[in-house]
Specification:
The chain is an all-alpha fold. Helices cover 80% and strands 0% of the residues. Helix 1 packs antiparallel against helix 2, helix 2 packs antiparallel against helix 3 and helix 3 packs antiparallel against helix 4.
């Protein structure tokens, strides 16, 4: 499981760098400043959680069961939160209407919060 978490974290980090470069250099030509800012929020949160996944995969303090739960909350949360932001910003560029997925953004955010709560409770329960 640790290997999967580390690979996922590294992959999300790589994708965040690529999307961040696109947002900084290519996106400004096709969407307004508010769209660029929203896109960058998605990239920033994806990178935060990519780094968190690297920490999670390399951590030996937490049980594998807790790591697995947190991993899935973070994984799905990233897809729903950042992924929906990317889709909503790019919907006009792609010629598709993604407005129906707008509610997935806060659901993804909630899943990320739950993942953090799992980590916090895991560390609080850990005895020295």
């Amino acid at each position: 499981m640790n290997r999967r978490i580390l690979i996922t974290g590294a992959s999300f980090g790589l994708i965040a760098v690529i999307l961040g470069a696109f947002g900084a250099h290519g996106l400004q030509k096709v969407v307004d400043q508010a769209g660029v800012a929203s896109f960058n929020t998605g990239v920033r949160y994806q990178m935060y959680h990519a780094l968190l996944l690297l920490f999670l995969g390399g951590n030996s303090e937490l049980s594998q069961k807790l790591k697995k739960k947190a991993y899935y909350f973070f994984l799905i949360g990233i897809f729903l939160f950042s992924g929906s932001i990317y889709a909503l910003v790019l919907d006009e560029v792609l010629g598709m209407d993604f407005s129906a997925i707008a509610l997935t953004t806060p659901i993804g955010g909630l899943l990320l919060i739950i993942g953090w709560i799992l980590l916090l409770t895991g560390f609080l329960r850990k005895t020295q």
